[in-house]
Amino acid sequence: MARADVSCGSTEKLLQLVRLCETAQHLDEQVDSLKKTAEAQVQTVSTLQTRLKGNLQSLDKTVQSQRAGSEKLVQNSQTVMEWLGQEQELTSLFVKSSKELQGVWTEIKEMGPSLATMLDSLSAVTDIFEVLHILSINTAIEASRYGERGRSFSIIAREMRSLADRSRTFTDTIREQGALVHGRVQELMKKLATAMDVYSSLEKRVRRFLEDSRHVRDNTQAVLALIHQYEEFSGAQISEWKDSMERLGALGQSATELLERSRQIETMADRLFGMIQRETEVASHETTELHHEALEEARRITEDLSPSLLFDRVQLDGILSEHSEQAPLFELLYVLDATGRQVSCNIYAPRYRTEHEACEGYGELRAHKEYYQIPMKKGEAYVSPVYLSSATRALCITVALPLFSEGSCYGVLCADVDLRYLAEK
Asked: Taking the model in full, what pTM does it have?
């Protein structure tokens, strides 16, 4: 009776340690996740800092270049505005000269008909003097007929003829000069007409150029204003990025501290897990009731096995599946042949089947494992210490029984006891 109490106490202690080990395992997983998160955060912060620093340097260079360009543009804009002012004054002077030239053209144009009229008048005067000359000749002829009485008429006729000759010479000179002036005036009018056309075309071009220059000035001022706005915006963005870099630096420091603390917690969790695992192994060696229960359940399975089934995987898997559904104590069942090769698939408990492929483990060689060597060589049952199952990531114990037929061992039945399932019951 006392032995049974000790066995029950050991089993209860083992289950408590299993629960504690499960908790420690969850803690270790959480710490590992926290560690990975912290490492990723540190890496992300470092990457962001590097990129942000590069962008900040690039933006700073761009702003400096923009500032130099804007200063040059300001100088050019001021030069353009001064040049436009001078050009406007020159254009005004040109327009004034054009108007004065227009006035000269008008006066010359008006003087042309007067010169023509004067020439016509000179022609008429010439005709009159021609008539006077003829009259003087006739008077002289008539005066010669009257002798002394006609002397005075002869003198008058001579004076009239002399006057007519001088007048004709004078009028001829005036006519020649007038014709020369008239010809030059006509030539000047043609040249002035051509010059006026050129001036008119040039004036239109100058006005158009002046208007375009004003647009250039306005556009330059608008571009300058945009550059100033961009410079202000860039300055604000640089300031914001610098602030972001400081925040990222603080965040990186926090992430580094978090990573260091997670590593410390991980170390503590590993120590705790190791202590619990050692205590669990000790308790598992002291526990006999659980071992007996697992071995008895495994022996019931061996009763339905035979050497021929090792060559019929489908039928063998079917038998193991039926027992797996009837014996929830086991998380995993499989069979090894005499060489240590697995001849069945991994038959998981129904609660784990959705997490695995249909036929895992088949054909694997496990001859180096203790759960094969001890049953096969010594013909004895094997019970392992508590360990973490690689298949289910749960704490378990492996029990292995030799399969006998006619006194010889032809294989090994392996069954993993699900301690987490027992602890949760």
From this structure: 0.44
